[in-house]
């Protein structure tokens, strides 16, 4: 996890430097001052990099040493269960279809958005409940 902390810290520093340079350059060449879309976006990227680095640093302090932090570790040192996944789940498809309909509905019409909400709710409920009902129930 220490490598991830370093990567996101470096990304935060990089985007902070780019944001400062971008603000200076656009401040000289824009007629109304600093460009109002790109500069805040770059500041947000820098903040996001520092935020993720801080969260990973806090998680690293609470968790035991991970195999990826050991330079002499083997691949099988990190073997084990990575999660519990249903092999034939249709729920992600319904959820993604509902989300796509919602985004289309914002541009095309409220009735598509309403249908997307219904389809997305069906997908999310199915995804949450898939280990409680049917073939994979526990």
Structurally, how many domains make up the residues?
2
Specify the number of helices: 4
Number of strands: 0
Tell me about the largest β-sheet: none
**Hey, roughly how much beta strand do the residues contain?**
under 5%
Radius of gyration from the CA trace? 23 Å
The averaged pLDDT comes out at: 89
Catalogue the unreliable spans: none
The chain-level structural class is mainly alpha
Along the chain, the helix and strand elements come as: HHHH
**Shape label:** flat
Distance between the termini: 33 Å
Percent of residues in helices comes to 55-70%
Folded structure, characterized:
- The protein is an all-alpha fold.
- It has two domains: 2-69; 91-136.
- Helix content is 66%, strand content 0%.
- The chain contains four helices and no strands.
- The chain has helices at 2-29, 38-62, 91-108, 110-129.
- Helix 1 packs antiparallel against helix 2 (38-62).
- It is flat.
- It starts with a helix and ends in a 9-residue tail after the last helix.
- 7% of the residues are buried.
- The model has no long low-confidence stretch (mean pLDDT 89).
Topology of helices and strands:
Blueprint: H1 2-29, H2 38-62, H3 91-108, H4 110-129
Helix pairs in contact: 1-2, 3-4
């Amino acid at each position: 996890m220490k490598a991830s902390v370093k990567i996101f810290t470096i990304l935060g520093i990089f985007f902070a430097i780019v944001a400062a340079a971008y603000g200076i350059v656009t401040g000289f060449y824009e007629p109304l001052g600093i460009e109002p879309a790109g500069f805040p976006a770059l500041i947000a990227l820098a903040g996001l990099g520092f935020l993720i680095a801080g969260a990973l640093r806090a998680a690293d302090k609470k968790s035991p040493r991970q195999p990826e932090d050991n330079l002499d570790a083997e691949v099988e040192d990190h073997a084990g269960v990575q999660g519990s996944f249903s092999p034939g789940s249709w729920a992600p498809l319904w959820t993604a279809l509902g989300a796509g309909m919602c985004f289309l509905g914002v541009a095309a019409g409220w009735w598509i958005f309403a249908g997307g909400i219904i389809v997305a709710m069906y997908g999310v409920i199915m995804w949450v409940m898939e280990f409680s009902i049917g073939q994979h129930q526990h």
